[in-house]
């Protein structure tokens, strides 16, 4: 049966080989590396070979060609003789010195037509050559022929290796069968006594007839004991320290033979005869052979036991190490999965092999979209800048250094983000110094950068706003100091009023900054009391009336009676003051400002006239709005108006820090209310806030 199975397997292998030969000859396949510094010729060869179904790689220098060949292992190399960095023949010689590339066919492409150049190409290790200008019909034929022969060669090598493997398997099976028979016959029970009993029985069977024999007893150690019975003869196996007269049967031994284990006597075979006769040389030789065989069997058993002990120990060690590695891997995996920063692991070419959930969330790409792609896909630079940055990073990584820097990232949806990037090398454990890949850690610092820009903008605005009133105060106070006697009373009063006005502006600015700081620190409590919003609004409008008169603005006030809410008077006054002062700032001379306060009902109020009305949680609430005929604001800016430090770019010439609306929204929110805004460029704006009647 084994022979039949072997014949059938060989026939199946032959049929599979024939089928594979037909497939190879029918379908062109394989990868071709084109090495040529002429981009036109290179592109023409790429088009011609890709039309034939080949996978094409390109390189324009000898160094790049060697790196690509080592990384990709092409089936054929088309190599130009004249390259900008290394001569093509030197490249061919280096290819032949690489064990993995030594058998890759090389076709030299040369413009030299003399026999000496061709002979040099063959000496360098080339398999064929093509002269320039390239005949693309000849190129197709040469490439197809070389690749077909190369595939036949590989197939023959595989077949030869398979035959050798089959022969080796048959030989090992034969050896294992013999070894198995020996183990079964001598060492399967793994007991020394099992080898003693057959040896003694055989000795008693073949020894001289006609002698009255006793029962035989045998042992090497007290724990190994066996009796071999025969009607003619008796035999014992004793420990070397045991005296023969201490046997169970008190007989005089006729023959003794030591049992050697590892060259040292570890036991003794003793044969006994009542008549005390002497044994012939053949009988002595038999006993000696039995003693030698028995010693070898016992030694095998001992080695087997020792080997089993080491196997068990090794299995325990392997199981322990495997468990430790599993625990460490799970721990590392858990850390990477839980890490807030995006982590990407790539190979030496920058192809992503691992991405943690933070990287998926940051880039917007799915896990499958990231794996197998170049890690430069997340960089939001132009093609040239991306190449230069990638080259710079690879230089650091190849030198074993860690690269750190800030750059712009690109999400899947096309939006950009600022990231702090750290890239570290990963080296091959089996090849010291050989780069295996790299790990990159990205931290999203978009909000940090935005905060820094906002902070810089705020500092710039605050500095400007502080300098302006201080400069005016310094100027007017200086005039009063130096020109006091020359000024009339009216002029002096005017300068004093200007100083007081600029001081008030400076106080408001500082107050806004301090107010925001107190709100952030939670040190701004609400002193709740019953308030009439209409009176508060009237008071703030009267207070700011001088500012409106300077710009000849027409101010209107519309309030209803009994608009009573619970709240902090100072904080609500500040909210009204912020809205009215903004309206005055952004309304041109001669414009109109209308301030209104009344009780509102959801069903009876126009939501366009009162922006933010849809956020009402009940049907009755108090509303305050300020309507101006000012510059107006574009729709894209409206969602950001209540953000701290935010200012519309085309209105930056108007004094302000961008804090007033943010403070207003925060204070109204603390009273349980909300804000709203509506604006049309060139028409004007409406700013409003709403408070529930039970606000506290």
Automatic annotation (TrEMBL):
Record-level Gene Ontology MF annotations: phosphorelay sensor kinase activity
Reactions performed catalytically: ATP + protein L-histidine = ADP + protein N-phospho-L-histidine
EC number: 2.7.13.3
Residue numbers of 4-aspartylphosphate PTMs: 80
Keywords of this entry: Kinase, Phosphoprotein, Transferase, Two-component regulatory system
Residue intervals of the PAS domain: 328-374
All copies of domain Response regulatory, residue ranges: 31-147
Organism for this UniProt entry: Candidatus Viridilinea mediisalina
Lineage: superkingdom: Bacteria
UniProt-recorded name of the protein: histidine kinase
Domain Histidine kinase, residue spans: 461-695
